[in-house]
């Protein structure tokens, strides 16, 4: 769950058995180790960050496993699964942050996915391909 007061976003995530929990998102370049959560003593983990106005995608990373916050301001499908959304009043997400790969290790997969979607889109516009091409998959 995430709450916003002014430009401060507070994240709360329930994972009582976890040893390491982090928040990764557009606001920190999807970099691990930037926003670590701390245990609140009741099974919840908490972290907070000041953000400029706008909408940001994020996910929790607990002991190496990704989690989506369905109690956030919304969810949106991203390149690597369902991302949660946090909104801060007063602006729009910077274009430079949108669509970046999470890190260099997965950058090749992101690039390959973009190329596949572009190829499928051009095939679909040309009337070639079936259902798979319309959904961004190339057989």
Roughly what percent helix? 10-25%
For the biggest sheet, the summary is: 5 strands, antiparallel
Total helical segments? 2
What's the shape? globular
List the domain count as a whole number: 2
CATH superfamily of the largest domain, by name, is: Immunoglobulins
Would you spell out the secondary-structure blueprint of this structure?
Elements: E1 2-5, E2 8-14, E3 21-25, E4 38-39, E5 44-50, E6 54-62, E7 65-67, E8 75-78, E9 81-88, H1 104-125, H2 131-134
Antiparallel strand pairs: 1-2, 2-5, 3-6, 4-5, 6-7, 6-9, 8-9
Question: How does this structure look, described?
Answer:
The structure is a single chain. The protein is an alpha+beta fold and 139 residues long. The chain is 19% helix and 35% strand. Strands 3, 6, 7, 8 and 9 form a 5-stranded antiparallel β-sheet that branches. A 4-stranded antiparallel β-sheet has the order 1-2-5-4, with no helix packed on it. The longest helix is centred in the C-terminal third of the chain and has 22 residues, at 104-125. Mean pLDDT is 76; it is low at 93-139.
């Amino acid at each position: 769950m995430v709450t916003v007061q002014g430009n401060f976003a507070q994240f709360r995530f329930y994972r009582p058995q976890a040893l390491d929990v982090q928040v990764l998102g557009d606001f920190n370049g999807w970099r691990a180790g930037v926003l670590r959560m701390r245990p609140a003593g009741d099974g919840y983990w908490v972290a907070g960050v000041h953000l400029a106005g706008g909408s940001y995608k994020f996910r929790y990373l607990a002991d190496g496993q990704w989690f989506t916050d369905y109690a956030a301001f919304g969810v949106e499908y991203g390149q690597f699964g369902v991302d949660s959304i946090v909104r801060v009043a007063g602006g729009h997400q910077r274009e430079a942050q949108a669509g970046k790969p999470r890190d260099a290790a997965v950058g090749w997969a992101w690039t390959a996915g973009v190329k596949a979607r572009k190829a499928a889109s051009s095939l679909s516009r040309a009337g070639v391909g079936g259902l798979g091409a319309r959904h961004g998959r190339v057989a």
